Amino acid sequence: MNATAPQATKVPDTRGLAGQTVGDTAICEVNQTQLVYRGYEIADLAAHASFDEVAYLLLVGHKPSATEIAEFKREQGGLRAIPASVRDAVVRVVKESPSAHPMCILRTGISLLSHLDAECESNDPAAELRKSKRLLAQIPTIIGVCQAAREGRAPVEPDATLSHAANLLWCITGKKPDELTARVMDVSLVLYAEHDFNASTFAARVIASTETDLHSAICGAIGALKGPLHGGANEMAMEMLKDIDADCAGGAMSVETWMKRAFAEKRKLMGFGHRVYKNGDHRAPILRAWGLKLAANLGPSGQKWFDLGDSVQAIMLRDKAIHPNVDFPCGITYFCMGIPVPQYTPIFVASRITGWCAHAMEQHANNRIIRPLATYSGPAVQGWRV
Ligand SMILES: CC(C)(COP(=O)(O)OP(=O)(O)OC[C@H]1O[C@@H](n2cnc3c(N)ncnc32)[C@H](O)[C@@H]1OP(=O)(O)O)[C@@H](O)C(=O)NCCC(=O)NCCS
Prior knowledge:
This protein has helices at 42-48, 51-60, 66-78, 84-96, 102-116, 125-151, 164-173, 179-192, 199-208, 214-225, 233-247, 255-264, 283-298, 300-320, 327-336, 344-365; strands at 28-30, 35-37, 40-41. It is an all-alpha fold. It has two domains: 28-228 and 342-365, Citrate Synthase, domain 1; 233-336, CATH 1.10.230.10. A hairpin with a 4-residue loop joins strand 1 and strand 2 (35-37). Helix 6 packs parallel to helix 7 (164-173), helix 9 packs across helix 16 and helix 13 runs antiparallel to helix 14 (300-320). The chain is globular. It binds coenzyme A. The site of coenzyme A (COA) has 16 residues, from loops.
């Protein structure tokens, strides 16, 4: 071999805009070493801030004072009810189409809300902030109405006295959550709130950049988040663990064999991998630690899922060097809360609505339509008439 021959360099795979920076934002920084919301690091926020405070930080732009957060929470409590026509439509869709995914129903609910929002067509900054606050407050109510209809029971009225996280649990389950469950849900919402130009947020910014209305941008973002490669992974991760548990029941197969088969079939394991984080997702260990506290309360029936998750995680790291992302502990944690799996991604929406709205407002504040170029790879020009 010629020692002076140039080494073959691997051409970076830029499909999916991998590795490309496509704009500026002052809302969030995501990199290998940290995740920052408007200057505050995620572990700090998860330990010391409530989701309500993080929502204010993202939407309004600064850390709230004690007076500001008290007023924000009071205002949120008063905005939670949804119009009867929206509630009735959600119930009707669930009844007529029981297999409709709750993400699609939530998207429809928000689309219906837009028709009844007097400020729907206004992109004035103050109007956009008011609409963002209304969406934040009303999303848990829609999720709750949807879940109650799926179970064939009457929905509960949202509780204005509860935090966003506790009210969300109340709306979904119809039961007031204990302190630990509400805290763990709150932390999960803090972790999910924002993540710079992820697929759904970028979709929201593209839509907002046409100067259409905020609700349209949010409906598009929900469609993007639903996909299994994005937010839908929290549901798929838990479904995957349930499959492994069933296939390995009674020693029918080892987890190792299950994983080897999945690798041989070139399957994507849900809740693993990340476009940006190659050495692990900063959010995953934070949520895992809180989820384990919940599991400890449940005893063996909860711990079992974290133990199974640990086995899968260890094999994934050993054989593929791929780390879990936040959706992996999230799926197990929500399962330990007793939440039906199809509501995991809607819960993600109840948090990420803050990031989406902040980005839509940032886009509108300095707008130019997002319209990139494409490299044509089709046939050469030819005559239509032969
Ligand atoms: C998140 C995700 C979409 C990122 O996609 P990406 O940036 O295009 O993926 P990468 O370029 O890092 O993938 C590198 C390699 O790892 C593999 N890989 C990545 N994630 C994997 C997973 N979850 N399971 C199995 N293999 C995976 C890819 O197939 C690829 O293999 P190849 O080089 O042989 O083609 C991808 O990791 C994935 O599909 N994960 C599962 C879904 C998920 O959990 N989504 C939530 C993200 S927060």
